[in-house]
Specification:
The complex is a heterodimer of chains A (about 110) and B (about 110). Chain A is mostly beta strands and about 110 residues long. In chain A, the strands form 2 sheets. In chain A, strands 2, 4, 5, 6, 9, 10 and 11 form a 7-stranded mixed sheet that branches. In chain A, strands 1-3-8-7 form a 4-stranded antiparallel sheet, with no helix packed on it. Chain A has no helices and 11 strands. Chain A starts with a strand and ends with a strand. By secondary structure, chain B is mainly β. In chain B, about 0% of the residues lie in helices and about 55% in strands. In chain B, the strands form 2 sheets. In chain B, strands 2, 4, 5, 9, 10 and 11 form a 6-stranded mixed sheet that branches. Chain B has a 5-stranded antiparallel sheet with strand order 1-3-8-7-6, with no helix packed on it. In chain B, a hairpin with a 2-residue loop joins strand 6 and strand 7. Classes of the chains: A mainly beta (about 110), B mainly beta (about 110). The interface between A and B is medium-sized, with 26 and 29 residues.
């Protein structure tokens, strides 16, 4: 098991373009989280899946953001019509069922909107 | 509304001494508390957790203390080592599926000086 994998590691895009990020969680982890982190801040919760069901979405997740987890395995996070304020590190994490003994994070995708 | 607060953005400790990182929370419904460590350009790494039914959990050089009445927890690192220099995030979570998102504080940058 290689841990949580995120792709790409870096993405530079022009304002107005759409971007999609992928997250492959640790196998058999049924919980998957997306977070966003900006400089000097802690990770901010965006959304959470249990298997393929999206159970919670943050108010931070505007209509331009959508996340999916088909078949309860990998997940994608799409941002449509990107804005400069979307520039951040996007982190994915997974954890097993039960008490959150510790969600395991990927290395993140750094998005820069120019 | 910051549910998890780390009021010290930075801390400098001499190598070999004890490092104490503090965290306060506001939501009495949190069941689990976690500490994560983050190096630059990497995702957060789970360090140690504590259930709300305990007041102390120890793992090697790391000990977490929980004071529920004060809604306060702390992470003790002893002895501090150069490799401990990183940003430390306090986090909190519920247990059931409706409260499984992990809420992070803004982090404390720990620097271990020789």
């Amino acid at each position: 098991d290689t841990g949580v994998s995120q792709d790409p590691r870096h993405k530079i895009t022009k304002r107005g373009q759409n971007v999609t990020f992928r997250c492959d969680p640790i196998s058999e982890h049924n919980r998957l989280y997306w977070y966003r982190q900006t400089l000097g801040q802690g990770p901010e919760f965006l959304t959470y899946f249990q298997n393929e069901a999206q159970l919670e979405k943050s108010r931070l997740l505007s209509d331009r953001f959508s996340a999916e987890r088909p078949k309860g395995s990998f997940s994608t996070l799409e941002i449509q019509r990107t804005e400069q304020g979307d520039s951040a590190m996007y982190l994915c994490a997974s954890s097993p069922q039960g008490p959150p003994s510790g969600a395991f994070f990927g290395q993140g995708t750094r998005l820069t909107v120019v | 509304d910051q549910q998890v607060k780390q009021n010290s953005p930075s801390l400098s400790v001499q190598e070999g001494r004890i490092s104490i990182l503090n965290c306060d929370y506001t939501n009495s419904m949190f069941d689990y508390f976690l500490w994560y460590k983050k190096y630059p350009a990497e995702g957060p790494t789970f360090l140690i957790s504590i259930s709300s039914i305990k007041d102390k959990n120890e793992d090697g050089r790391f000990t977490v203390f929980l004071n529920k009445s004060a809604k306060h927890l702390s992470l003790h690192i002893v002895p501090s080592q150069p490799g401990d220099s990183a940003v430390y995030f306090c986090a909190a979570s519920g247990v059931d599926s409706s409260a499984s998102k992990i809420i992070f504080g803004s982090g404390t940058r720990l620097s271990i000086r020789p």
